[in-house]
Design goal:
Rossmann fold, eight-stranded antiparallel sheet, 19 helices, about 35% helix, binds fructose -6-phosphate
Length: about 625
């Protein structure tokens, strides 16, 4: 199914002395939600007892110029960035959506699966729909109930009861202009507690400028905020003591701005040394690592899963635990969970890797395994997100917010955290002794420095190579052994932001088919891990490609015997093979970045993609 990957924000101000007007707060929040991907945007508020809606197709900055989002009056404002699914991108289909009598406005992230049935029944009652969206049914449903119940909250609750699917919903009404009503199921939603105002948003960056006191709204919660109060209950009507859920987040607004870089992606590539340092500091002190190791060793079968980049990190861990600890871990792509669930029992373990902690494919895999009694371990970058919440135990990376759609610092931090788990596993399974553990501690503790070196020695080379690479239509990314997931990650970066077809497979497979495509000037990127045996095998693969006229691009450690075989080389620091993702990924990220920029694309907002895929 296609997905609705929108961003929502809502602010109610009780005390007019906030630094910005409510309209400006929502506008600035919308800009911070842009990274999720969108085609249209809108805002609504209540001014002088009337609903005002400004919305349209296009970029937020252009809509601001045209419609003046930030100047909208009123102290209760909701906003939305839309990623079209039900209904083409258009002014009409942009959110907020309203009812027939313009008394209720709704923004929504998710999919209302039964909207066609609901719409049919509402039309038969005389409701007139303006858009093709699933969301509009919510505004009409509330209107319908309000005509009978005369209470906005009761009507909203009744409407939500009828919805099937996923939703983070915000509703405002002229009948209670000082409140925003909300409900959540399977789409992310956060409350930010301010001084004289409260905020609701899809994610932390959108409200980081205003407050650091947040509550992660749980599935099945419904309620409302005003400028100085919060009310929450669960779908069964039990009142939630939300004070127990308040957390102070330590991300700073500096983490969520470009800080002088032309794009978030470049900033985040350069943030890797810091992110790796913080992550290693965090995991090396984390008592959960020992518990995770015990769970792995106690389990009959161990699986690891994730989507996209997080799958590559999962695959890396499976290889690292085989090689280092002799422990078999089965990696699979999260959306394929149904092929694996039938063999799962309560003696098994699933590790779910997800930077956002909200990816629906990963969440569904988690739930399917949990239903069969398997224990669940989460590896995530976002504390309190859905996947860690539903897991038995969680390990966190400390990359900070990642705004660029393409994962960069979250991949290297995931692999570093998982490398430390592999080391702990090797110790507990008796493969290495205490002395070696200390050596590994030093090796992994050096990741930050190595990433910094890699970036500084390869950035210029990446920029230069992009001058040639931007003209090609297709490329192969090959490696062997621990390098395979790293090459897969390189290929994913090139295809998702530079729109160049890039395929990655273990190099030994070339002669079984793919080499048929290779001709004069076909680019083949070889990721060369630090291992003599692997280098020998890769030599043969390089030669077979060269013989067909391929241009050989290498990402290889200093003094690699393969450097002379290559047409173009990114020389990276020579270190332990376990750190291959740390030393070999940044040049590939930079190559994709500069190639995208050379082609005139915005690497932060690749077409057809959104940062967090919260639906199937
Ligand atoms: C690629 C990318 C995606 C994500 C995938 C999973 O650059 O960002 O492939 O890795 O959508 O997202 P998380 O890790 O949030 O579950």
């Amino acid at each position: 199914m296609l997905s609705d990957l929108c961003g929502i924000i809502g602010i109610v101000v009780a005390n007019k002395n906030t630094q910005y007007s409510p309209g400006t707060m929502v506008y600035r929040g919308l800009l911070r939600l842009e990274y999720r991907g969108y085609d249209s945007a809108g805002v609504a508020s209540i001014c002088d007892n009337k609903l005002v809606v400004l919305k349209g197709k296009g970029r937020i900055i252009d809509l601001e110029r045209k419609l003046g989002f930030s100047k909208i009056c009123g102290s209760t404002v909701i906003g939305h960035t839309r990623w079209a699914t039900h209904g083409a991108p258009s002014d009409i289909n942009a959110h907020p959506h309203t009812d027939c009598s313009n008394r209720f406005a709704v923004v929504h992230n998710g999919i209302i699966q039964n909207y066609l049935d609901l719409k049919k029944s509402l039309i038969s009652k005389g409701h007139v729909f303006r858009s093709d969206t699933d969301t509009e049914v919510v505004a009409h449903l509330v209107e319908d109930y309000y005509n009978v119940l005369n209470s906005v909250y009761d009507s909203f609750k009744q409407a939500v009861k009828l919805l099937e699917g996923s939703y983070a919903l915000l509703l405002i009404s002229i009948h209670e202009p000082d409140k925003i009503f909300f409900a959540k199921k399977d789409s992310p939603l956060i409350i930010g507690l301010g001084n004289g105002f409260n905020v609701l948003a899809s994610d932390i960056p959108a409200l980081l400028e205003y407050t650091k006191r947040i509550i992660t709204v749980r599935d099945g919660w419904i309620g409302y905020i005003s400028g100085n109060s919060v009310y929450i209950e669960d779908f069964d009507g039990n009142i939630i003591d939300w004070s127990k859920y308040v957390r102070i987040i330590n991300w700073s607004i500096g983490d969520a701005v470009k800080a002088g870089y032309p794009h978030y992606m470049l900033k985040e590539i350069h943030e890797q040394p810091r992110a790796l340092k913080d992550t290693f500091y965090g995991v090396s002190k984390d008592e959960n690592i020992a518990r995770v190791v015990d769970l792995i060793l106690d389990a009959e079968k161990v699986f690891i899963t994730g989507a996209g980049t997080s799958f590559h990190a999962s695959y890396y861990f499976a290889l690292a635990s085989n090689i280092l600890a002799g422990v078999m871990v089965y990696p699979f792509i999260a959306s394929e969970f149904e092929s694996y669930a039938p063999v799962v029992s309560d003696r098994d373990l699933l590790i779910v890797v997800s930077q956002s902690g909200e990816t629906m494919d990963a969440l569904k895999a988690l739930r399917a395994f949990k239903e069969r009694g398997a224990k669940i371990v989460a590896v995530s970058n976002v504390v309190d997100s859905a996947i860690p919440r539903e897991s038995d135990i969680a390990i966190y990376t400390r990359a900070g917010p990642e705004i660029g759609v393409a994962a960069t610092k979250t991949f290297t931090t995931q692999t570093l955290a998982l490398a430390w788990v592999a080391v702990a596993l090797a110790r507990s399974s008796g493969r290495i002794g205490e002395g070696e553990v200390r050596e590994y501690f030093d090796i992994l503790g050096n990741a930050s420095k190595l990433a910094s070196e890699t970036i500084s020695i390869t950035e210029y080379a990446a920029k230069r190579l992009s001058e040639w690479l931007h003209r090609v239509n297709s490329a192969y990314y090959l490696s062997r052994w621990i390098g395979v997931p790293v090459a897969m990650e390189g290929a994913l970066k090139l295809k998702e932001i530079a729109y160049i077809h890039a395929e990655s497979y273990p190099a030994g497979e070339s002669k079984h088919g793919p080499i048929a495509l290779v001709e004069e000037d076909f680019p083949v990127i070889f990721v060369v891990p630090n291992n003599e045996e692997v280098e020998k095998l890769l030599l043969g693969n390089i030669k077979e490609m060269k013989a067909r006229g391929a241009v050989i691009i290498g990402v290889a450690p200093e003094e690699s015997s393969l450097i002379d075989e290559m047409d173009y080389v990114f020389t990276v620091p020579r270190t332990h093979w376990l750190l291959t993702p740390i030393t070999h990924t940044p040049p590939q990220q930079l190559l994709a970045y500069y190639t995208a920029v050379r082609k005139g694309y915005d690497p932060d907002k690749p077409r057809n993609l959104a940062k967090t895929v919260t639906v199937e």
